[in-house]
Design brief:
This protein has 715 residues and is an alpha/beta fold. The chain is built from 31 helices and 20 strands. It folds into three domains: 3-283, Alpha-Beta Complex (2-enoyl-CoA Hydratase, Chain A, domain 1); 314-494, NAD(P)-binding Rossmann-like Domain (Rossmann fold), CATH 3.40.50; 501-709, Orthogonal Bundle (N-(1-d-carboxylethyl)-l-norvaline Dehydrogenase, domain 2). GO terms for molecular function: 3-hydroxybutyryl-CoA epimerase activity; delta(3)-delta(2)-enoyl-CoA isomerase activity; enoyl-CoA hydratase activity; long-chain (3S)-3-hydroxyacyl-CoA dehydrogenase (NAD+) activity; NAD+ binding.
């Protein structure tokens, strides 16, 4: 044994070949933490001092290669000053440089996922050979940073600057065929032949049949582009990426600038440029928010795993109500492999649900995300029915009928009589209290909410709503089924609107008051879209449906009259009374026409302003900061109330609910992270400026107390 550590071992194989094997003890995956970096440094020192070694093979002892850097550990380093971060990055890069500078050829056998620092490790060796099942990539931009272990330096020199810009700015995981096509790896082989073929290639390099020194020279030299080519590649890319990110995500643009600055330098000087840019990004609020989201996501997965311990398996599901929503739920369940009954009271409903599922599956075939045979298999997992005859062996039933408590209660009582006593029954209600719906049920312990968001196939979130009598087993089973469907479940407690809608409607309340005071809804939409929302409040109401919004608003006003019952007639109410329902009937705040692809396109209609005149003051321009404050303060305070009242367990879950449920800007990290970024003391001060607008703008006593103590919601 040449070296033995807790993350890496190095042993001598045949013909002077040393195998450096990553196998981090006590972990299911390999990752770059301090221990791994220290082991890599020590193992390279041992290799340099061993005269028997003629070539290096780098392998992994786990199913993946290396998933990347341990962001939970390295994220702590980002709290340091920029100079300290730069020093840390350059020290780490000395280790990767030492691998690259070994006095003999090297090759990495990529057996599984190699991302971020894992792929940067691969790039530090002379050759890379990849299993056909593996994936490689540099996804750091998704954390608001860019590659910091030499990725912006080595990748452009290996696959070309234009390709490297795409890989780094998109942050995608790339399959073996694409990696080979772009030249990121030198060969792709079957998994079982990986080590044998890697050794064979390494032997050729040792024998001088492959010019490994030339490969290395290319990686450590200047980029082979003349000044005109550099300008064309980098400036064009900057313009395109700026258009895509709308200035809200600095990391992709900074990555391009870094590659451009470093193009005329050799490796060591280029790495200094990379380190400076990396440190700058590590200190941005966007990076802190996106890393926070990554950590929040890990928490959600951890909590979901805990539920797995008591969850019952869902081998067969059912959905009641075969409309667009029911069809979407049936599609999602069938797509992910769980057979599902789709029941309705009429053939027309069944047809609508099947058409929805068929349309969604056909789109996947069209986009080559699935084969026609797989589409057929998925459709066969959906069993349409007009009766309860086949419900005897169903594990989970999702009720998705009209949002009316009387109708829901009738349907829930019916289904409770035909399913097994241990079957879980869930209501896909968006606002109605679970305890209210459970009042007449015989087995309320098996009943809860399972709130899907529309469109089901696109929205990642499912709110699992625990009623006061819901058992932990029912919650766990529903969480497991949501995961089975490919969704992110968040468990919340019962109240009107639960988490997402309860928080959304104060935002709409702020918007309604802006309209009352003379704001142009087009200006409000533009400001909030620039703030980072995928659509402004007026456009969002149109997409949700103004009739749906009116109903939900009434529920929220009844549930929280002191804050959410308006003392004025809103623009939404006027539109509703005049049957302006939004996209669904092509007229709302905007009117809707079909574009060339047959999709609804919003167009401004002057007549809507006339319609709204009786409830709106004369139009005037509002300052953008004023619009943001008036919309965001109510949303943020209501999120805090949900946390304080125990509707949601943690700040992490509250923020993830808003990001996955309403498209809260990810680079802002969620409502509570947004408050932390502003500073709770400053947020309270800001809210107090607007307190005359009413209770939606009144902070809680606990918020004031936390502000005085300098506390945060996240850490």
């Amino acid at each position: 044994m040449i070296y033995e550590g807790k993350a890496i071992t190095v042993k001598l194989l045949e013909d002077g070949i040393a195998e450096l094997n990553f196998d981090l003890q006590g972990e299911s995956v390999n990752k770059f933490n301090r221990e791994t970096l220290e082991d890599l440094k020590a193992s390279v020192e041992a290799l340099k001092g061993n005269s028997d070694v003629k070539g290096l093979l780098v392998t992994s002892g786990k199913d993946c290669f290396i998933v990347g850097a341990d962001i939970t550990e390295f994220g702590d380093n980002f709290k340091q000053d920029e100079e300290v971060i730069i020093e840390w990055i350059l020290e780490a890069n000395k280790i990767f440089n030492a691998v690259e500078d070994l006095p003999f050829p090297s090759i990495t056998a990529i057996n599984g996922i190699a991302l971020g620092g894992g792929f940067e490790m691969c790039l530090s060796t002379d050759y890379r050979i990849m299993s056909e099942k593996a994936k490689v990539g540099l996804p750091e931009v998704k954390l608001g940073i860019y590659p910091g272990f030499g990725g912006t330096v080595r990748l452009p020199r290996v696959i070309g600057a234009d390709n490297a810009i795409e890989w780094i700015c998109m942050g995608a995981e790339n399959r073996a065929d694409k990696a080979l096509k772009f030249g990121a790896v030198d060969a792709v082989v079957k998994a079982e032949a990986l080590q044998e073929q890697a050794i064979a290639m390494l032997k050729e390099a040792i024998a001088g049949e492959l010019n490994w020194e030339a490969k290395r020279e290319e990686k450590t030299s200047k980029l082979k582009l003349n000044p005109m080519e550099q300008m064309m590649v980098f400036e064009t890319a900057k313009g395109f990426v700026a258009g895509q990110t709308k200035g809200q995500y600095p990391a992709p643009i900074e990555a391009i600038k870094t590659m451009q600055k470093a193009a005329n330098f050799g490796r060591d000087k280029a790495l200094e440029v990379e380190a400076k840019g990396f440190a700058k990004l590590a200190k941005t609020t966007e990076s802190q928010a996106l890393i926070g989201l990554f950590n929040n996501d890990q928490l959600l997965k951890k909590k979901a795993k805990e539920f797995d311990k008591i969850a019952k398996p869902t081998k067969k599901a059912a959905v009641l109500g075969a409309g667009i929503m029911g069809g979407g739920i049936a599609f999602q369940s069938a797509l992910k492999g769980t057979p599902i009954l789709m029941k309705d009271i009429a053939e027309a409903g069944i047809e609508l649900g099947l058409n929805e599922a068929n349309k969604l599956l056909a789109k996947r075939v069209e986009r080559k995300k699935m084969k026609p045979a797989q589409m057929g298999e998925a459709l066969n997992r959906i069993r349409p029915t007009l009766s309860y005859a086949e419900f005897g062996d169903v594990d989970v039933v999702v009720e998705a009928v009209v949002e009316n408590p009387k109708v829901k209660k009738i349907v829930l009582a019916e289904v409770e009589d035909v399913v097994r006593e241990d079957a879980v029954v869930a209501s896909n209600t968006s606002t109605i209290s679970i305890d209210l719906l459970a009042e007449d049920l015989k087995r309320p312990e098996n009943f809860l909410g399972m709130h899907f968001f529309n469109p089901v196939h696109m929205m990642p979130l499912v709110e699992v709503i625990r009623g006061s009598k819901t058992s932990e087993e029912a919650v766990a089973t529903t969480v497991a089924y949501a995961k089975q469907m490919g969704k992110t479940p968040i468990v919340v407690n019962d109240c009107p609107g639960f988490l997402v809608n309860r928080v959304l409607f104060p935002y709409f309340g702020g918007f309604a008051a802006l309209m009352r005071d003379g704001a142009d809804f087009r200006q409000v939409d533009k400001v909030m879209e620039k703030f980072g929302f995928p659509m402004g409040p007026a456009y969002l109401m149109d997409v949700v449906g103004i009739d749906t919004g009116k109903h939900a608003n009434d529920v929220m006003a009844e549930g929280f009259p002191e804050r959410m019952k308006a003392d004025f007639k809103s623009a939404m109410e006027v539109l509703y009374e005049n049957e302006y329902y939004g996209q669904k009937n092509k007229k709302g705040f905007y009117k809707y026409e079909e574009d060339k692809k047959g999709k609804p396109k919003k167009v401004f209609d002057e007549s809507v302003l006339e319609l709204l005149k009786p409830v709106c003051a004369d139009q005037k321009d509002f300052d953008a900061d004023d619009i943001i404050a008036r919309c965001m303060i109510p949303m943020c305070i209501e999120t805090v109330r949900c946390l304080e009242e125990g509707i949601v367990d943690t700040a992490a879950e509250a923020d993830m609910g808003l990001i996955f449920g309403i498209g809260f800007p990810p680079f802002r990290g969620g409502a509570l992270r947004y408050i932390d970024t502003i500073g709770l003391d400053k947020f309270v001060e800001l809210a107090d400026k607007y307190k005359d607008l009413g209770p939606l703008y009144h902070v809680t006593d606990k918020m004031r107390d936390m502000a005085a103590k300098g506390e945060k919601y996240h850490g």
